[in-house]
Amino acid sequence: MPVKVIIPTALRQYTGNQGSVTLPGRTVGEALSNLSGEFSDIKKHLFGEDGKVRNFVNVYVNDDDIRYLQQNETELKEGDVITIVPSVAGGSEDVDGELSRAEIERYSRHLIMPEVALAGQKKLKKAKVLLVGMGGLGSPTAMYLAAAGVGRLGIVDFDVVEYTNLQRQIIYSIDDVGRPKLQAAGDRLKGINPDLEIDFYEERLTSENALDILAKYDIIIDGTDNFPTRYLVNDACVLLGKPNIYGSIFRFEGQASVFYAKEGPCYRCLYPEPPPPGLVPSCAEGGVLGILPGNIGLIQATEAVKLILGKGVPLIGRLLLFDALAMEYRELKLRKDPNCPICGDRQTITALIDYEQFCGIGTEADRLVLEPENEISVTELHERILASQAPVVLDVREPHEFEICRLPDSKLIPLGELSTRVHELEREWDIVVFCRSGMRGAQAVKFLQEAGFEKIKNLKGGILAWSDEVDPSVPKY
Ligand SMILES: [Zn+2]
User: What domains are there in the chain, each with its CATH number?
Assistant: First the structure.
C-alpha cells in the first residue's frame, strides 16, 4: 500500500534532503518503521527507546492527528499522506486547538523554526489582537498579522477609502475608493487568510466604548493619527493591564515602543501632556513618506508576534526612533515615571476622561473662529474675479505646494514668513488669503488683523474647495 510521507525540513538531512518519500505500509507504524529502515539516521528522531513515536513528534494522516485515530495502528489506504511535525521547541507547552493539515502547510516556514514551531503557531491561532485605526500603520500590520496566522483581529475605523490614501495604505486598491475602510480591509484580509476571524468596529473609539472593546483582546496596536485617541488607547490599556504597541510617523521619521504598564512605562510616562493643538502638524498637513508607515507598522506587527510567542526582547521601556533619510535606528531608554498620573504610585486617573478636552481640542479659543465678514466662499471669489473686482489673492502655503497648484494671479508668502514680509502688503488693500484647506489661512487672517489690516478675508475650504466647486482642473493634494 504505497503512501507518501512528508518530511519536515528539520529532518530532511536524514532523508537525503528529500521533502517527501513514498513507501509501503498498511498502518502508520509500519510506514514509519519502513521509513527508518530506509533512512536509519531518522529513527532516533522519530522513535524513543521503547519503539514508540516520541511525544514531541506529531504525526498526521491527511488532516488528522494519529493521537485521535488509532495511533500507530491507524490503517492506511493508497494515496494517504503522512505528515511528520516535530515540535522543535520542545512541544511540552499545551495550547488548545489543533492545526489542520492546510494550516500546517500554510505555516510550514513558521513550524520549522524552533522559536515558533507548532506550539507557537497555536499561540498565534489563539491570539486576539485589536488594531485601532486602519490607515497607514494599520494596513501593513493587519496584512502581516493575518498572514502570520493570528486567529482573531479586531479593527476599528470609521473612514471611507480616499484616493490620497493609496500612496501608503496598501491594504486598499483603486477599486476600494469610496468604500468604507473596514469593508475593504475585511475583504483583503479574508483574501490573505480565510481562517482569520475579524471583528469590525465601524465607530470612533471613545471613552464610553473603549474599555468594552479593548477588554476582548490580548494585545492592542495603536495605529491612530491623533492625540486624543492615543491618550485614550494608552489609558484604557493601563486600566485593563494590556500591552499597547505604539507607532507614530511624520514625514521621514517614525517612533515605536511597547507601553505595558505592568512591566514598564506607559505613553503618559513619556509624554505626560499632549502638545498644544496645531503645534504638531498631522500627516495631512505635514506629509508622510508613503513607505514609512510600512517600516513602523511592521515593527508593531513584529512586536505583537513576539509578545504572543513570548520570544525575544520586546520594546518595553525602549523608544525606537527611525530616520528614513539617514537610514538610522536609534534607541532611547524609557523609564516609568513614579509620578505618572495613571501608572505611577499615586494614580490620579482611575477612569477614562474627556480626551478631546484633555488635548485642548474643541475649545473656542483654539478653534480659531473667524467672523463671517472675514470669510469668503470660493464661488464668491470666483464671481468677483469674473466681474473684474478681483482682490489681492495671498497664498500662505509653502513653495512646494505652490508648485503643485495655485490660484490665478496669487502672491505667495508662506505663513511662517508673514511676520517678516508683512511690509510687502498694503494695509488698504482688499486681500483674500488662502491655503490648502483653510486652517493656515485663518491664522494668517488673525495675524494680519492684529497688524492693522481691515479688508481681509479667508477663503473657506482653501484651494481644495476651489478645485471642488470652481475649477476641477486644479489638482487636489
Ligand atoms: Zn505611565
Answer: 2-95 (3.10.20.30), 127-364 (3.40.50.720), 369-469 (3.40.250.10)
